[in-house]
Amino acid sequence: MPVPPFSAFEPFLSEDEIQAKVAELGAAIAADMSDSENVVVVCVLKGAVVFMADLIRHLPQNVTCDFLRLSSYHGGTRSSGTVRFDFDLTQPIEDKDVLIVEDIVDTGLTMSFLLEALQARHPRSIKLCTLLHKPSRQVKEVPLAYVGFTIPDRFVIGYGLDLEGKYRNMRYIAALPEQTEELLAKVDE
Ligand code: 5GP
């Protein structure tokens, strides 16, 4: 199937709306972390990479960054429900203030798995920042310290979020037309 061009998708959240929200989140996080010397910003690859890259440029200079990768999706538009580490952080987080940066919290299964796994390493604190939250699909409740946008139950792409590996480099976020979602859900079954 040929991949539709970016222009085939109407913005659901425009580049300006996203950038304004990222600046707002960055200011709130920077104010909250002003008394901390040891902040590790943890990017959950791959989806959060664009958000994290923009967000950290609103944070103070003493933060460090690290990356991990989890898998819960195997293509398609719905979570498989199982989560595992594809690769892990490169440093211990004991006594550090950890800020997890995620693209979207959908069922909450991925973040609840990650929070539990990182808590076991005894960080000083751990907070979660997600650009998007789909509360209607929540299966596990996760404490979200910072949320960019609360969105309805639609499959979204762009600004780091992919559709089968594509569209991460779209500057805005689009919601897939419902027919496309149904089609992909069938492919996924
Ligand atoms: P959860 O475990 O909360 O159900 O799912 C989290 C992961 O599912 C996200 O990190 C993201 O990779 C993927 N995901 C959930 N909803 C969407 C969506 O609407 N669009 C895209 N591209 N990925 C999604």
How many domain units? 1
Largest sheet: 6 strands, mixed
Distance between the termini: 18 Å
Bound molecules: guanosine-5'-monophosphate
Shape: globular
Strand order of the largest sheet: 3-2-1-4-5-6
Beta-strand residue fraction: 15-25%
Describe this structure as you would to a colleague.
This protein has one domain: 3-Layer(aba) Sandwich (Rossmann fold), CATH 3.40.50. Helices cover 25% and strands 24% of the residues. It has 4 helices and 8 strands. A 6-stranded mixed β-sheet has the order 3-2-1-4-5-6, sandwiched between helices. Strands 7-8 form a two-stranded antiparallel ribbon. β1 (39-45), α2 and β2 (64-71) form a beta-alpha-beta unit. The protein is globular. The mean pLDDT is 92. The chain binds guanosine-5'-monophosphate (5GP). Guanosine-5'-monophosphate (5GP) binds at residues 47, 72-73, 79, 102-110, 155-157, 161-162. Guanosine-5'-monophosphate is lined by residues 47, 72-73, 79, 102-110, 155-157, 161-162.
Looking at this protein, list some descriptive labels.
about 190 residues; alpha/beta; Rossmann fold; six-stranded mixed sheet; two-stranded antiparallel ribbon; 4 helices; about 25% helix; binds guanosine-5'-monophosphate
Give a short synopsis of this structure.
The chain has 189 residues and is α/β, with parallel strands linked by helices. It has one domain (15-155): Rossmann fold (3-Layer(aba) Sandwich). The protein has helices at 15-32, 49-55, 109-119, 178-188; strands at 39-45, 64-71, 84-87, 97-105, 125-133, 146-150, 156-157, 174-175.
